[in-house]
Every structure is written in C-alpha cells, then in structure tokens.
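dude i think i finally got it to work??
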Amino acid sequence: MASATLQQAPESPEKVNSFGRIVGVIFSPKETFQSIVRKPNWLLPTILLCVASLSVVGAFGSRPGAWRAYMEQQFDNSSRAQQMSTQQREQALEAQLKYAPMFTYPAVLVVDFLVVLIIAGVYWVVFSMGVGIKMNFKTSLGITAHAWVPFILSGLVAIVVVLLKDPSTIDLNNPLAADVGAYLPSGTSKALLAAAHSIDLFSFWVLALFATGYSAVAPKKLSFGGALAWVVGVWLLYVIGKTGIAAAFS
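look at this
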C-alpha cells in the first residue's frame, strides 16, 4: 500500500507592523516585546522620539522672547555668569541668542539617536555577559527604542505645555515639570536637584518596559523581577554618577 508523506507547511514569516508595536508597547507590552524579540526593529520609534523632541524645541522657539528667557535662566544658574559684569553678561547673552537656537536642533537629533544606541549597548553587555542570555545587539536596540515610547508621549504633552505657558516660566530641559526636582525650592543644591530630576513617572514607566522587554528574550532564565533588578541597578548607577558630577561642578 502506497504511503503518503505529509510535509508540514513552513511557517509564514511574522508580519511586523511598526506602528502597531508602538501602540502595543502602551496597551499590551508583554506580547509586543515578545514580537520584537522574534523580529526586532527600532528605526520608527527612534525617529518618532527625535520628531517629538524637535517639535518641543520648535514650539518653544515659536514663542516671542522664549529663547531670551531660557538663556537668562541658564545665566542665573551659572556661577561663572554671576561673576560677569552687566556689560559682559549682556554680550555673552547676545552671542548665545545668535547661535544657540541654530545649533539646538541638530544637537537634539544627534543626542536622541546616541542615547538610544548607547543605552542599547549598555544593556546588551549587561544582559549578555552579566546575566548570560543569548541576544544580539539588534534585539537590544529594538527593546530600547520601544521602551522609550513613554518619552514620545511626554514630548507630545510638552508641545502643548510650551505653547500655553508663559515662556519665562518654562525650563526647556524639563518642560513638563513632571519630576520631583521641579518642585524643590530655589537654592537647593545642584547634586540634590540632579538626583530629584530622575524621579518621575515617565522614567519609572520606561524602566518597567525595559524589564518587560529583556525578560522576553529568555523568559525561562530571566523573570520580570530579575530583569527589573538589573535595569534599576544600571539606572541607579547613572543617577549616582549624574549626582556626583553635579556636586563636583556646583
């Protein structure tokens, strides 16, 4: 009797919907990061992060007198500027107003891309060598880029804030004032401010997404709690380093 050989049909490749993943990170992060691990991508969320940051700067710059108010804030917080005479301060301020807006846009673009790449590299080393899970850099890059989605949302809210608030009351480095540092009294030490600025809901949300993403790489070996411990540990080192630098130059 002739026997029939049944061959299993090959699995169709997973279809990647980049916009769907960005939405999925917010509403179903576990399943979304599992998909990212299977077939990582990173460019779209990184581009959207850059667009959001540039839009905040553009909205701020569209307000009359905004750049002058921002520069005056920076001068007020600078010990070097406080030692200048009134004439020297005004000359320095005019020089800053001439070039700073021009260079801010490319600087924001470069910094956003570099931050994503550097953090992806740091966590790739941490989880590959420190934890021992098998993961290539592209996977780490995909997790990092998508874990940054809450900062895209904060950027969109910040656009509204800078368009509505008095420009003289806006800190362009922290337009939402959504962290603890924004509510500390004037005269607080720079070291304490640096640490307090790291304590905000968006940062905690991002840390949780990082843990969700990296635990999806090897769920049998690395739990969410274990991944979160490593993620928070690296973040604490960053906060300590930032606080130390602020203390050294205060």
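The chain has one domain: 40-248.
im so relieved honestly
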